[in-house]
Amino acid sequence: MQICNILCTFAIMTNDVLHYIDQIQSFLWTYIVVTMLVGCALYFTVRTRGVQFRLWSLSPGKKKHEGQSTMHNHGKKISSFQAFAVSLSSRVGTGNLAGVASAIFIGGPGAVFWMWIMTLLGSATAFMESTLAQLYKRKGEDAFYGGPAYYMQYGMGKRWMGIVFAIFMIYGFGLANQIVQCNTICGALNHAMGIEESHIAWALMLATTLIIIGGIQRIARFSAIIVPIMAVGYLILALYIIAVNYDMIPAMLSLIFQSAIGAKPVAGGLFGAVIMQGVKRGLFSNEAGEGSAPNAAATATISHPVKQGLMQSVGVYVDTLLICTCTAFIIILSGLYTGNDDGIVLTAKAMDFHVGQFGSVYLTVSIFLFAYSTVVANYFYGESNVRFITDKKWAIRVFQCLTAGVVLISGYVTLGEAFCLVDMAMALMVILNLIAVVALSRHAFRLLNDYQKQIREGKDPSFSKSTLPDIQDKLEGWR
Fold first, then answer.
1. Which residues contact residue 85 at a Cβ distance below 8 angstroms, ignoring those fewer than 6 apart?
2. Model confidence pLDDT, tens digit, residues 362-377
3. Full-model pTM
4. 22-59 as b/e, with b when 16 or more CB fall inside 10 Å?
């Protein structure tokens, strides 16, 4: 009886804490985060002359040996594609399935429109942060490493700021986000196969541990294999559903636009909620401006920082314009979003509506691949920031144990509680990261100009730190 009373008291205290966290993150998103995301995205789009819309024209015409301008890259290397795959495996997760469903359930079909807008603008931010991560990357034993914490210290000279961001990153991606991903896996397998969620959590913990103890090389190889398979497989089924319902597409698109900017949401006071859901869940999915993808971008052995920045812009498009849009179309075409189901249950029922029981099985497999690959990538993000704070091996072991523990408890919490923690983490990371990216943006603009000049000369661009003589002593990863 006493133990039950203690557990009840702990549950009440936890709910109170979550309530206050929810109020804080709601304030940050409403008045600060959205303004910063949109403002910075517009600024970067204008200053780069829409670099995210000129991706194909910026592709080099000739091929040279990658990494010829980098240094300290003896031994195994992380290729540009492998680094891209790690970041994409983090982007492509439950946000593409459960997150999109939640956005439509709360904000209506119009939320999809604002996800699109933030993707088109936010990909410029993704370019900036990943280019800076490459510029200020550091050498490691097996690969390069870096990210916002590193360009805060070496670019801005503010280690304290880097440590604060690293803590936010460890909390957000290394812990809170893991609960969302694994909780979704547990719920989907329980719904489809009736397996006890706690049993699934134990299996996930063991599987995750086997991957993360292998370090970035094993994570990169795993992501490079699993990401293309899961993305292509899901897109094939989604495109089939859309093709079968082709006659309903014009009406669906009209509904999306009317729900986003029409008179009805404005008159009903829902306009702000529609935008908020589109922006918030869009960021949860594509992570542009959040400071997560740069951790993967920095690991690549590449001949020019801008190359990886462009690659990460493509990742934002793949995540939202392709995969999230497919999920949204499946849900809206089913018409089930007006019911009481939210999250992954709504997506599962929409799949069942279109293709029967096969839909649930296929979705369950997709959820497992999407979410599990995200768990692995998120661990790497957390580890990178642990290493920023301290390079002690015991710290990494402690973080690995924490990751295993968080994966395990995911089978015992609710998705709503997990999302509350993630939204708070995203808000804190966005605010700090965008301050740093704006402060260092002039260097990214100079890099882009150098890259474009070499493209016009018919070269495959390569970078030397002598190109930026005023900061070359801070560029350890370049010759």
1. 220, 223, 224, 227, 228
2. 777 777 777 777 777 7
3. 0.77
4. beebeebbeeebbebbbebbebbbebbeebbeeeeebe
